[in-house]
Design goal:
alpha+beta, 2 domains, four-stranded mixed β-sheet, flat
């Protein structure tokens, strides 16, 4: 059973999922979980969440695998993006490198979910050999150039850029695939959207670290402003408040331990869930 939960934890939340799901990995003895009602309730909620995320990841992986089996037609990235339609490449695309294969596997769950959305709402699916991404034209994106979800670039069908700029944009988006691969390994399919949201609120626009890592000029971003806008005080205060709310019980336990100089707990409660600050 431990092997099953290990797989579920990794599929649902990556390395972080393993730490959260498996008690011994988070330095919490199983008997302490059994002795605390709130710990048991919290652990059950974590398991349910991980099962749902793992099921979502498996579904996405299956969708991505089925798309790979269908052998999408190859297209020319720069012309396809600039014209907002699928332009077939007459040449046979070369096989991807080992690096691209590994990142395809790591991003397969979220890529499959993006493909499912593209199949329903988009049109003109095609694959690009260099950089290795999948293009999908989604009318709902309107004037937005596009967004990278896993290894799938949801592009606007409205032509807005020339082929040279489109080729640079494709390389920029390909670097985002690397970010998806790393974040999915660390924290599952939900880590990158959350991390990007936090970063974009604290460091807006060209100061976003994910966009800087992918290349601002290639992505069509302006140079960072001088003086810099971020970090924005209201955003820092907001996310600090979020962290304090999430970790309030452990903060309370730490304060109580410092005051009493030893850890104490109430009956049927672990030290973290014991009420009282002093």
């Amino acid at each position: 059973m431990r092997v099953v939960w290990t797989v579920v934890g990794f599929l649902g939340g990556g390395i972080v999922g393993l730490v959260l799901v498996l008690p011994r990995l988070r330095f919490l003895r199983p008997r302490r979980v059994l002795a605390c009602d709130l710990c048991q309730r919290r652990h059950r909620r974590l398991l349910v969440a991980m099962v749902l995320l793992a099921a979502l990841s498996v579904t996405g992986f299956g969708l991505r695998a089925s798309q790979k089996a269908r052998e999408l037609p190859a297209c020319v990235a720069d012309v396809s993006i600039s014209e907002g339609r699928r332009v077939i490449d007459p040449q046979v695309p070369r096989r991807g490198s080992l690096r691209s294969t590994v990142r395809s596997v790591l991003t397969a769950p979220v890529s499959g979910l993006a493909l499912a959305f593209a199949e329903v709402r988009g049109r003109g699916l095609c694959s690009v050999g260099d950089p290795p991404i999948t293009l999908a034209f989604v009318p709902q994106s309107k004037d937005h150039p596009g967004s990278m979800v896993g290894e799938v670039f949801l592009s606007s069908p409205t032509p807005r850029i020339n082929p040279v700029r489109a080729a640079m944009l494709a390389r920029h988006e390909s670097r985002h695939v690397d970010q998806w691969a790393v974040c999915s390994t660390i924290g599952g399919i939900g880590l990158l959207p959350v991390a990007y949201l936090v970063d974009s609120t604290v460091y807006p626009g060209s100061e976003n670290h994910f966009e800087q890592s992918a290349g601002l000029d290639a992505g069509g971003y302006a140079p960072p402003p001088h003086p810099p806008v971020g970090p924005r005080p209201w955003a820092v205060a907001f996310w600090v408040a979020v962290v304090l709310v999430i970790g309030r019980r452990r903060i309370r336990w730490a304060v109580r331990t410092l005051v009493r100089r030893h850890s104490t707990h109430a009956p049927d409660r672990c030290p973290v869930h014991t009420p009282g600050w002093t």
